[in-house]
Amino acid sequence: MPEIGAVPPRCVLVLDPAAPRWLIANAAAVLGASAGAAGAAALGPELTDASGARWPAIAEIVVPVLAASPAELAALRAAAPDAGVTALAFPDLAQASPTYADFAAAVARTATADIGVHAVALLGSGNAVRRLTRHLPALTDPVPVP
After folding, report:
1. Would you say 28 and 13 are in contact if contact means Cβ atoms under 8 Å apart?
2. CA angle 108–110–115, rounded 5-degree value
3. What is the pLDDT tens value at each position of the chain, 146 positions in all?
4. Which structural domain, as residue segments, surrounds residue 105?
5. Domain with 24 in it: what CATH number?
């Protein structure tokens, strides 16, 4: 993992746009929590609106959300270390495991090539993350099914 100092690393979330909505939402939530725990984001201050209602703090960073196929996601994960970028992955084994212990056991018995990747969060310098992701489109709404 890159050194995380006073300046938070850039964080980009890359998801499989063909995945079911519930899986996209779950992957985004898990990777967002993981990126925050890894130091990618500091919380801003609590806010008060014009009516006096309080708003708890949220992360101060902007997180672009991009789209990539499962093969592209696996390639991003594999290329990240050489680019000096940390790739936090949400693999199919995590989604299928009821506990972290079950997930760990599944990873231990599965070859890298056999682990499908639903999403990745990329953490690193802005330039390094951009070099890996500049060719990817933004995640948009799926085409409606008639």
Report:
1. yes
2. 120
3. 444 445 567 899 999 999 999 999 999 999 999 998 888 888 889 999 999 999 999 988 889 999 999 999 999 999 999 999 999 999 999 988 999 999 999 999 999 999 999 999 999 999 999 999 999 999 987 655 55
4. 10-133
5. 3.40.1490.10
